[in-house]
Design a protein that fits this description.
The chain is an alpha+beta fold. It contains 9 helices and 14 strands. The two termini are 33 Å apart.
């Protein structure tokens, strides 16, 4: 019987907090440092593509959008969103600037390396320290403005990159706020109840980050991992995929399902804080990224949640299908405390909050 991922790596965690990505252009075979051992669901032989196992596609303008979103979150933890209002020209521009960034030589990208404590900058995935093997991935995180880091990459030509990323974040925030309204409606709660439940102490209305992901062509994709299985920490994540597939979600009783890119659509994943807020009704979805041998895949993930100093707790007025009041399953937690828990305990963090 295949081992689980946690069993494979339980006794050999990587004690590093900051990982410098490989210079992918310098290798022609898969380094041993990037060869992942076999575990349940890996190598990547068992996926279930096809219409029968496709995540729901939801039109944001559909009069029944809240009901459709609620059903998708309960059954899948993810859905594809259309009619979201994000201009296609802007997505083309942000994809072009993202490719421009990752096409830089490795030594140039190192000039914008992010700090070990996090924040804006270039580096490996934040989940890398949990594993003794490296992922076939490089990323660039933007929290607020990217100007300081972009200047290091393009001293005389950084404005185009910064302007596009700023415009994209503004538009994504609008989409996220529309989605938040839909999520709350699907849970039959008002914005006032949400604000009182999250106990937002500061003036800042939300906590966001934009993650640019790069998965270069891999010489041996069946033995490499693009991004290890994980859930996202905040309320939800909105993902733009390039035309190359690679995102997979885990469906209970089915297995890993490829989320194929859909022209003009965005992928929405339920995160851990929405899992807590919904009292487990909307489970956060386990997902991963696979790589391929022929194409350079990129994706952009926009993370959305309450401010870091907010407290979040289950909405106790949520009821089960039998109309019986369900007791809170999770204790209240601040966003910062939960993020810290997740960085220390990874996928065990949610279970540590169980009542």
């Amino acid at each position: 019987m295949a081992s689980t991922l946690s069993q494979v790596f339980r006794d050999n965690p990587l004690p590093l907090n900051h990982i410098i990505p490989l210079d992918f252009t310098s290798v022609h075979s898969l380094p041993e440092s990037h060869v992942w051992p076999a575990f349940d669901g890996f190598p990547f032989g068992t996926t279930y593509p096809g219409e029968k196992f496709s995540i729901p596609i939801i039109d944001l303008m559909d009069p029944n959008a809240a009901q459709l979103v609620g059903h998708a979150c309960e059954k899948w933890g993810a859905f594809q969103l259309t009619s979201h209002g994000l201009p296609s020209m802007l997505t083309d521009d942000v994809e072009s600037q993202t490719r421009r960034l990752f096409a830089l030589p490795a030594h140039e990208k190192m000039k914008a390396l992010r700090l070990p404590s996090g924040g804006t900058g270039y580096g490996q995935a934040r989940i890398s320290p949990f594993y003794p093997k490296f992922m076939w991935h490089e990323g660039f995180t933007i929290m607020g403005s990217a100007v300081d880091h972009a200047r290091k990459l393009w001293p005389d030509d950084y404005k185009g990159f910064c302007d596009v990323m700023e415009d994209y974040q503004k538009k994504m925030k609008e989409v996220a706020e529309s989605l938040l309204h839909i999520f709350l409606e699907s849970l039959d709660i008002s914005k006032e109840e949400y604000r009182s439940t999250t106990i937002q102490r500061g003036r800042k209305a939300c906590n966001t980050a934009l993650q640019l992901n790069s998965y270069p062509p891999c010489p041996d994709p069946n033995r490499a991992m693009g991004l290890a299985p994980h859930t996202d920490s905040l309320l939800f994540t909105i993902v733009h995929q390039s035309h190359t597939s690679g995102l997979q979600i885990l469906r209970d009783g089915v297995g890993w399902i490829t989320v194929f890119p859909l022209e003009g659509a965005l992928v929405v994943n339920v995160g851990d804080l929405l899992h807590i807020l919904s009292n487990g009704r909307y489970p956060s979805v386990l997902h991963r990224a696979v790589v391929n041998q022929a194409e350079h895949r990129i994706s952009l993930a926009y993370f959305y949640g309450p401010p870091a100093d907010s407290l979040i707790s289950p909405l106790c007025n949520l009821v089960s299908s039998g109309q019986q009041v369900v007791a809170p399953r999770y204790r209240s937690v601040s966003v910062k405390e939960y993020v810290d828990l997740k960085e220390k305990h990874k996928e065990k963090a949610l279970s540590l909050l169980r009542l």
